[in-house]
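Person: Please comment on this record:
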Amino acid sequence: MKFPGRRNTKHYFPVEDKQRSSFDDEINRPGNVYVVGIDQLLVDIEIPVDDAFLEKHKFTKGESFIIDDNLADTIYWQYKNAGQITGEFPGGAVGNTLHNFSILSDCPSVALGTINKNIELGDYAFKYICNTSSKVNLTYLQPCPRPMGRALCFVSPDRDRTFAISKGCMNDLSPEFIPVDVIEKSAALLVSAYTLRDDKSPMFKSTLRALEVAKNANVPVVLSLGTSGLVNEKKDLLLEIIPKYISVIAMNESEALSLTGISDPLLAAEKVLDLCDMVLLTVGARGLYIGALTDKAHARETKEPLHTKSLVEYNKYEYSRARRRADCDPDQLVKVYSHINPFRGGPQMIKNTNGAGDAALAAVLHDISATPYHKNKVPNSPKHASNYLTYSSISQISKYANRVSFEVLSQNSPRLLRGLPEKEDGLEEAYWEK
C-alpha cells in the first residue's frame, strides 16, 4: 500500500553540499508527518529453552514479568558462554512499532524513553541504535547512568515465548523530558500498558503527562495492551484511562479476554468500542479483526459477501473509514467490523511470533498518519469533507495490517528488515491503491 509521501532517498557528495538535510530537522520540515511513542527501551535476547527450565525458575509460560538484574546476568552469561543465544534484537512493543512504521512509511517517528548515556561499542545500547531505522528520531531520549533494560525471551519447543524483564534504567524517564511541542504536532501518540505497570516510577508519571498533552492537543492516542497478565494486574487503571485518553486499542484475544471478560473476539471488540474509537484485535492463526466507529451518514456498505458469526452481518459496513466518537452523530452511531484470515494462509514456516502484533499496529499507524499528510497536501480533497481517524476503510487497513504481520512471521526478527514489495502476484489491485 502506498500513501502520499517522500519516497526517494538521494545521497549527495561532498558532505557539505547544501542539498543534504539534517536529521535533526526531519520532524520540523513543513508538511512532514510523524508519530511519537513512549517506550521502555529494551534489547530482546532470544534463548531457546525447554519447559523444564521454565518450571525450574517458576516462570509462567507465555507471560511477561520482572526478574532481578543479577538473575538475568546469570542466565545470560550461562547461555552466552555456551553459544546458545540465537539473537539479540532491539525490542520493546513501542520501539518495534515505531521502527516498522518508519520502514513502511519512509516517514520519521520520535522515540521517548531512557538510554545509557555511556554507550560503548557492542553493548546493548549500541546494538539497539544500530538496528533501529534511522528514521526513528532518538534525540529526545533521556540519558541515564544505568544500563538499558533487557528482555530475556525464552523460546519453548512449541515456539511460545516467555519474557523475563531486567529493568535497568527503562523506567527512569522523567516528566521533564516529555517534549510537549513534539507531541502536540504529531499525527498520533503511541503508548503501552507496560509503561503504566509501576505507578511509583518516573515512567508512569511521564506517560500520564504525555497522555494529557495529547488529549489537550486533540492528538489520537494508540494503546498497546502488552500481555493478559499485565491487563489483569492493571485492569482497573486501564478501564479508567481508556475512556479518558485512548482512541485506538491494539490487543490479542487473551488480552481482550482479560480486559472484557469475553472470549469471543467479535463480542470483545464490540465491548471495547464502548471505551474507545477503534480496536485492532489479532487472533493468531485466525487472522485479525478491526472494529471502529462511524455514524449512519458516513457508513459505507461492503461489496463483499456478508458474514455472520457472533454478530449478524458484522462486515456489512467494512468499507467505512473510522471516525472518532466526538466527530460522530451520537444518535446515529454505528460500530463497524472487518475480519481477515492470515495472508495466503500464513507462512509455510513461522520463524518468529514475537512482534507480529506490533507490525500490524504499525500498518494501522501508517494509515492514521496518512490522513493529516494528505490533508496538508490536498486540503480540498473530498476525502477530507468530514473528519476521519483513518485514511482508508477498515477493510483495506485489515489487508495492509495482515500483510505486514505476514512479513514479520516469515523472518527471525520482531522488526521489519525491509519495506513491502511494490506489487505481488495474486493480490487484488485495490490493495495497492493510493
Observations:
- The chain has one domain: 30-42+91-148+168-432.
- Residues 4-21, 425-434 have pLDDT under 50 and may be disordered.
- The domain at 30-42+91-148+168-432 is CATH 3.40.1190.20 (UDP-N-acetylmuramoyl-L-alanine:D-glutamate ligase).
